[in-house]
Predict the 3D structure of the following.
Amino acid sequence: MERLILDADTWLLVLTGAGVSAESGIATFRGMGGLWENHPVEDVASPQGFIKDPLLVWRFYSERRAAAASVQPNPGHHALADWERHLGNRFLLATQNVDGLHLSAGSQRVVEMHGNLFKSRCTHCEREPFADTTVYATGTLPLCGQCGEMLRPHIVWFGEYLEPADLERIESFVHTALDHGGKLVFLSAGTSGAVYPAAGLVNKVTAAGGDTWSVNLEAAENSHRFKHFVQGKSGEVLPALADLR
């Protein structure tokens, strides 16, 4: 297997998707067949679904919290944390996953593009998103302790925009790498390659002259845009992929 060289000149941007978490036992929307208890996923993961039935949405996310709290990071998560310790500020991990497993594995330079399952925020007041690991009982609608209005999961739902600050952090990392004359590398692991703007990161790095790697159990929709494609489970591929120098 060709090795990914991580030396003193390397700046590494990593994108992870649902496939990485699936290896820890986290169910994916695709694995659920797009349904949860016969509800289309949009019913429980969209602003419209929340307005229609917030109790249903909170039951869905409470179940997801319980499931995510019961699993552990896998070797793929730990490999990425090792790479970060080696590269320091020349490493940035952008993830589409909301389960917090990268943080549990020790990753620190993380952009949670789709939010965090273990945070909530108020639908009304300006209260900052806050840590919330509560698995709410069926029929319980959590309310804000500051204004009394409904809380919602701190998740980017279908039809919502990503946080501009998160996108700016990724852009800034790429620009900083180029300004320093470093060797820019982009690696995508466990993603479908279908969700934008994340799926377009490979194009930006390629246009900037960077190297690109895709690690996936099966070819993603945008695999043809990568210079290197390594087929397999990220939990098996990543620990053996890098050559730390």
